[in-house]
Amino acid sequence: MHFMTALADAWRNRDSLLCVGLDPDPARFPKHLAGRPDAIFEFCREIVDATADLVCAFKPQIAYFAAHRAEDQLEALISHIHERHPGTPVVLDAKRGDIGSTAKQYAVEAFERFGADAITVNPFMGRDSLEPYLGRPDKGVIVLCRTSNPGGSDLQFLDVGGGERLFERVARLAATEWNASGNVGLVVGATFPAEIGRVRELTGDMPLLVPGIGAQGGDVAATVRAGRSAAGTGLMINSSRAILYAGSDEHFAEAARRAAETTRDEINRYR
């Protein structure tokens, strides 16, 4: 599966810009899953099966699996998504960033071990740290640019010369020098809609992964208006906790579906 093609197809065929983040926290699982060795997989599987037709992508966060020694359940989950819901892109949220030789191993981990279709990466170490991902044109490389956390401004707003801020430099490089294979996207937080608009201005129709709505309080209307492409797509607007934990009993998946449908419809109102 080519990530960019699959994403464009999902935007069109499912009429959705919603990305559901898979951040499983066993402490918040329904009681009937308590103590099960496969609880993380089963929780996420039910969320996936209940919401797949409503999303343009899923985004599992690797730390929520690794912290519980559940990497095998992450492998099984991504395999399940591909087998049960073909054409649904999976973005592995890992935020990797290291020297080229180490990055090569991280790329193997993400794309060959876990079977992800895209990965989030940190550009702080420059182009050679991104090359192992960029060299796989069928895979998406989603580069951190303007993150949703308050501390992101510590570095991302620094003037790097000529009045250009660091996040603008990252956006410009991502859209030009780093995007020879057309497989690059950017992470821009919903908590900063003005910066979303600036990144869209610098990058044309490049896909933007936008965390920060739902539990983090990002404004959906402002996000969509600032970040949509000329075609009314171009966004993977991520919601995790507000969907995953919409319900707390054995009917949690149905509650997640209702929350996902409400969020998708709200996003679509502003396209």
TrEMBL record:
<dbReference type="InterPro" id="IPR001754">
    <property type="entry name" value="OMPdeCOase_dom"/>
</dbReference>
<keyword id="KW-0456">Lyase</keyword>
<dbReference type="Pfam" id="PF00215">
    <property type="entry name" value="OMPdecase"/>
</dbReference>
<dbReference type="GO" id="GO:0006207">
    <property type="term" value="P:'de novo' pyrimidine nucleobase biosynthetic process"/>
</dbReference>
<dbReference type="InterPro" id="IPR011060">
    <property type="entry name" value="RibuloseP-bd_barrel"/>
</dbReference>
<protein>
    <recommendedName>
        <fullName>Orotidine 5'-phosphate decarboxylase</fullName>
        <ecNumber>4.1.1.23</ecNumber>
    </recommendedName>
</protein>
<comment type="pathway">
    <text>Pyrimidine metabolism; UMP biosynthesis via de novo pathway; UMP from orotate: step 2/2.</text>
</comment>
<keyword id="KW-0210">Decarboxylase</keyword>
<feature type="active site" description="Proton donor">
    <location>
        <position position="95"/>
    </location>
</feature>
<dbReference type="InterPro" id="IPR013785">
    <property type="entry name" value="Aldolase_TIM"/>
</dbReference>
<keyword id="KW-0665">Pyrimidine biosynthesis</keyword>
<feature type="domain" description="Orotidine 5'-phosphate decarboxylase">
    <location>
        <begin position="17"/>
        <end position="256"/>
    </location>
</feature>
<dbReference type="GO" id="GO:0044205">
    <property type="term" value="P:'de novo' UMP biosynthetic process"/>
</dbReference>
<dbReference type="InterPro" id="IPR011995">
    <property type="entry name" value="OMPdecase_type-2"/>
</dbReference>
<comment type="similarity">
    <text>Belongs to the OMP decarboxylase family. Type 2 subfamily.</text>
</comment>
<dbReference type="GO" id="GO:0004590">
    <property type="term" value="F:orotidine-5'-phosphate decarboxylase activity"/>
</dbReference>
<dbReference type="InterPro" id="IPR018089">
    <property type="entry name" value="OMPdecase_AS"/>
</dbReference>
